[in-house]
Amino acid sequence: MTLELDDYSQKRIAYDLIIQEIPEKSRVLDLGCGDGSLLEELQKLRKIDGYGVEISPEGVSACVERGLYVYQGDIDDGLSDYKSNSFDYVILNQTLHYTKRPRYVISEILRICRSAIISFPNFAHCSIRFGLLCRGMLPKNRLLPYEWHEAPNTHHLSIRDFSRYCAANGYPVKKMSHFSLGKDGSSRVVGISPNFCAEFGFFILDGERFVS
Amino acid sequence: MNDAAPSPKGSIGLVTTRYFTFAEPPGKLMLVSGQSLSPVTLAYETYGTLNADATNAILILHALSGTAHAAGVHSAGDEYPGWWDAYIGPGKAFDTGRYFVICSNVIGGCNGSTGPSSINTETGREYALDFPVVTVQDMVNAQRHLIDHLGITRLLAVAGGSMGGMQALQWAISYPDRVEAVIAIATAGSLSAQGIAFNEVGRQAIFRDPNFNNGNYYRDEPPSSGLSLARMIAHITYLSEKIMHEKFGRRLQKSELFSFKFDREFMVENYLHAKGLKFVERFDANSYLYITKAIDYFDLKSEHGGKLTAAFENVQADFLVIGFSTDWLYPSANSREIVNALRVAGKNVAYTEVETDKGHDAFLLPDERMEKDIANFLLREFEKIG
């Protein structure tokens, strides 16, 4: 399946939080990097050594145009070849819910990186809950930008789902900055009841001690 | 320049093949097999202008049946431009307005470079099967002499498809400090067993031609039926099942009815025969044997302890690797294997996979996306060395 170029790269969702997090000269892998705009900004602002993986041909060609080194394929393709802790950061920004094998992807990225940044639309956000409760329909909004029959998403999840998943698998969460988008597209971190109030989950997991 | 014929738009126009001879006695070019060649001539063409710092040179590497004539035309009325004219010329992917593009015929070939049809200076006769077996590495080593001769210390890029891609990879491995970027298209770190099998059937077709005479046919009738059969077999591997179906289906050449004879009736039969006949006019059977052998021998893994990653350990170049969805001779899985090895070795590599019906042949045919990706990749690499 080829996804249309996801609009997260146009909307720059979570870019500010990610850029803030990543120190200069880090080695970064962006899985599902879209048109490469995040990697390009990280290169400009943080002088990172960046790589990407993207399934859509348009995205990959846009990355080549930006001078980025990107692999066209499924994000789980070739992860197993990387040595443990090959990257300082692996980014999974608005991509997790599209992956065919999330279990495998998460465990592999923890092995190959020191820190994993994972952000995804929160399926338990109040807008979705109300949509289902009041209208009895899946809402179509920036969290779920597709009609049900168009949606490429294979695995919906909530912030609580992911928290529990990390706990159950012993994945240490270093930091959480669940957020909603402000009018200008910037991230507003939600401290209170994030599973209800935050549009997006934002986790940083510690991958340092996961090696093989 | 001259005002004889205006260049067609986007064409480099009139070009001529030149020749460079080196390793003249007592010198010699040592080969991987332990044998040597002396002297060695390379036929080559260049397009565009080398800049003052010699930083804009790109070496194009041809596949099995290619020649030094990669772009432009040899005469005003020439109907057949060079083999990669779709990609080389003003404003094209390899923009001759910006880059200095070089292409040479491989050693072992039959289009101007030293090969089995060349005269062995020791005997005064054609080498024929006395020609030493050459490898992809030997081809690259010979090209390195040409690049020295042209006054280029570091190539902006080496680029090619199929066996040309093998040479491009070999360049980055053999001369890591002389290659800025590699464009490897529809290629592999080693040819599959299936690919070797097809090559062997092609060689057997030549060996078994009654005119073959152990390779000594240059003063008699050449083994044309064997060579054309080899080409027919190979041509099947260059196309996908789908494109063959689309091009020919089960359509018959003349009538709607079967003749119930062994005439060529199906269009696909005629097509293959035409391809075979055309090929023997321009290619030497002995060269076919040598070059297919070089392809079979190419194996980056076995040369580096069974690990492709080890092969790329010392390369400095950045890579663009391109695979085609319906290529079954050099499947895109082969390209991905190269890319994964490069990724693991920590090298800069971009991989694009082109969705196409055209099979292995796609690398020779115009494709908008491939053209754009190559152009952009080159531009960024050129900017980097600024």
Question: What does this entry look like structurally?
Answer:
The complex is a heterodimer of chains A (212) and B (386). Chain A has 212 residues and is an alpha/beta fold. In chain A, 31% of the residues lie in helices and 23% in strands. Chain A is built from eight helices and nine strands. A seven-stranded mixed beta sheet of chain A has the order 3-2-1-4-5-9-6, sandwiched between helices. Chain B is α/β, with parallel strands linked by helices and 386 residues long. In chain B, strand 9 (119-120) and strand 10 form a beta hairpin. Chain B is globular. Classes of the chains: A alpha/beta (212), B alpha/beta (386). The interface between A and B is medium-sized, with 21 and 25 residues.
Helix content of chain B: 25-40%
Topology of chain B as a string of helices (H) and strands (E): EEEEEEEEEEHEHEHHHHHHEHEH
Q: What about the largest sheet of chain B? A: 8 strands, mixed
Spans where pLDDT lies below 50 across 5 or more residues of chain B? 1-9
- C-alpha geometry of chain A: globular
Could you tell me the strand content of chain A as a percent range?
A: 15-25%
Distance between the termini of chain A: 31 Å
Secondary structure: number of strands of chain A: 9
Q: What is the tally of helical segments of chain A? A: 8
**What is the strand arrangement across the widest sheet of chain A?**
3-2-1-4-5-9-6
- Which spans of chain A of ≥5 residues are poorly predicted at pLDDT below 50? 1-6
Rg from Cα of chain A: 16 Å
Q: What percentage of the residues of chain B does DSSP assign to strands (E)? A: 15-25%
First and last CA, distance of chain B: 30 Å
- Overall 3D form of chain B: globular
